[in-house]
Amino acid sequence: MTLALAAARQGITAHVVEKADPAELTADGVDARASAISSASWNLFTNIGLAEALRPLGCPIDAIAVTDQHKPGRIDFKPHEGEAALGRMYANRDIRLALFEAARHEPNIAWHTGVEAVKRERGPHGVAVTLNDGRVLEGSLLVGAEGRRSPTREEDGIGLVAWDYHHHAIVTALAHDKPHGNVAWEIFYAAGPFALLPLNDLPDGRHRSALVWTVPAKDAKGVMAMSDAMFTAEVTKRMDGMFGGIELIARRMAYPLSYQNATRIVGDRLALVGDAAHGMHPIAGQGLNLGLRDVGALVEVLADGMRLGLDAGDAQLLKRYENWRALDNFTTMSVMDGIVRLFGVPGRTASAVRRLGMGAVQRMPALKNFFMNEARGTSGKLPRLLQSA
After folding, report:
1. Taking the CA of residue 149 as centre, how many other CA atoms within 13 Å lie in the half-sphere pointing to its CB?
2. SS3 of 195, please?
3. Res 344: pLDDT
4. Count of alpha carbons within 13 angstroms of residue 240, beta-carbon side
5. Under a CB-based contact definition with an 8 Å cutoff, are residues 236 and 194 in contact?
6. Mind listing the pLDDT tens digit for each residue in 81-91?
7. Given a cut of 80, is residue 347 above it in pLDDT?
8. In 3-state terms, what secondary structure has residue 99?
9. Model's pTM, two decimal places?
10. How much is the pLDDT for 24?
11. Fold held by 2-162+258-386
């Protein structure tokens, strides 16, 4: 939907096919997940007209703390005085509500919900998609934005470089006694990372954070089967009293974790964006932001080409999109995979070496600035939509 809205602002029309009911996707309590929106991604939302709706709902990330089991040698990432926050935390539901409301008032978007594609045809002069209700939609370009199991990608025979991390992410939300101070915590344990991400306080004034607890796949069912009291006790133990007393305020959800990167992201009149093109470990919350950079790049390439009279499905335009995104996608995903593997090495010696390295980074401002720019999403060649106005 972000892609469709961004394209619409450039005068490009689109059909959006969504098999789910929007009311189900935005129902309270259906999705406990929250997403970190980088500074660059916030610029995208601003430039497509969502800032007014989203600004009051997001919690600024004023600092990021990284620690190995709460032991000495942690890293603190904090912007210099006068600099913007490292990003904002949003409940996924709030982002969806803003996107869907904007789409309802956008004449350049034809939104088809509660249906799915049963046939996709691509030819030299255009594309056609047949829906399960019999309707046929026509256009110049087919975009696969259906997530990791993209049927559009699979139908085109696009391969994947993929592996399983053999871990699950347990996701929920917590209320807690002490304020989080707008700090995002990444606490590494041998069994997997444990992230606490700041959210806005609840209407009753209670402090709130999103939790992403990574556990071995063999333990995931047991963790999900715990009573709320037992689960809360285990979470409290890993928080080491940081936020005082805690309370579970959302249902738990479990997601298997894996790495996958499409061997190509374009085809004949075809482009892939977001998780259809790449999926990574959520260790630094970069998955959605990487997809939003896909959106900015694809819209810019299409808009520039169409102003010159080229067709949206032109092979040269799609190749430019693929070349633009290739390095950023590969670099970001490789770095995230390397961090997962580095902190997954068990043992006291490995922990001591990691903490020694983290202590060194803490004392190197230039390296910390590099990592902060990566977190903001402001490194490399940014599409115009992801630049500040």
Report:
1. 0
2. strand
3. 76
4. 11
5. no
6. 777 788 999 99
7. no
8. helix
9. 0.92
10. 86
11. FAD/NAD(P)-binding domain (3.50.50)
Percent of the chain with pLDDT over 70: 99
Q: Give the Cα separation of 141 and 185 in Å (integer).
A: 41
Band (351; pLDDT cuts 50, 70, 90): confident
Q: Are 161 and 39 in contact (CB under 8 A)?
A: no
Question: What is the average pLDDT across 140-149?
Answer: 97
Helix (H, G, I), strand (E, B) or coil at 290: helix
Distance CA 237, CA 24 (A): 35
Backbone angles phi, psi at 227, to 5 degrees: -65, 160
The DSSP secondary structure of 241-268, one letter per residue, reads TTTSSEEE-S--EEEEEEEEEES-SEET
Alpha-carbon distance of 33 to 50, in angstroms, equals 20
Distance CA 360, CA 81 (A): 23
Residue 227 has pLDDT above 90, yes or no: yes
Q: In this structure, are strands 109-113 and 14-18 parallel, antiparallel, or unpaired? A: parallel
Q: How far apart are CA 1 and CA 99, in angstroms?
A: 7
Residue 235 CA to residue 241 CA, distance in Å, equals 10
Residue type, 121: E
Phi-psi region of 122 (alpha: psi -120 to 50; beta: other; left: phi over 0): beta
Kindly list the distances between the CA atom of residue 294 and the CA atoms of 44, 69, 85, 289, 307, in Å, as whole numbers in the listed order.
11, 35, 23, 9, 20
The answer for residues whose C-beta is within 8 angstroms of residue 104's C-beta and 6 or more apart is 111
